[in-house]
Amino acid sequence: MIFKDVRDGRPYPEPRLSTRDWSRIPPRQVRLEDLVTTTKVLRLDRLLSPDSTFFGDLFPHVVRWRGELFLEDGLHRALRAALHQRTALHVRVLELG
Questions:
Q1: Which stretches does the entry tag as region Disordered (predicted)?
Q2: Is the CB of residue 93 less than 8 Å from the CB of residue 31?
Q3: Which structural domain range is residue 71 located in?
Q4: What is the pTM of this model?
Q5: Partner of 25 for a Cys bridge, out of 9, 14, 65, 92, CB 3.0 to 4.6 A?
Q6: Residue 5: Cβ-neighbour burial (10 angstroms; 0-12, 13-18, 19+)
């Protein structure tokens, strides 16, 4: 199992942070097996694209909600890390509750 769970949708309120707000959160390392995804759909073209992070944040966005770590943005980066046999990923974690 790569992720702790795979869900369709987020159980927490939508974080209304701008790219600049997310960039103020320092990245930290988390284990892939501790992450819960918030989408069941992966766009293969984004996974295989060599410049998939060119226009976005280098670090995936994670929301900690009620003790769980939800992968808000960056599923393709997390899966790419798993395909490279990495067990952890550097992410930005927003503490919501």
A1: 1-20
A2: no
A3: 1-10+28-49+60-97
A4: 0.85
A5: 92
A6: exposed
